[in-house]
Amino acid sequence: MVLDKEKKKRLYKTARQITQCSQNDWGRLFNLEPHNGQKGQPNVALKESGTKGVNKAECLASELLVFLYEQGFDIKNTEFDKQGTITHIPSRK
Asked: What is the pTM of this model?
């Protein structure tokens, strides 16, 4: 399967919307950040607008997050330790 720039951008943005994550949430997840913040939000906005490209690894991560969401996990409240390792993904209630 060949993913052109537009398809990758659409997949990335659609995955964020399906998982009900804000751009801040998505940026935190993709930066493996343990706390909320806006560090990654500008990068997410640039990728969704097409100003910055979305790579295949980001597409894969996006699809995996959608899969976990559809399995009942609360993606936006994923917890990381200071090294960026996932420590907990709660269930949606």
From this structure: 0.89
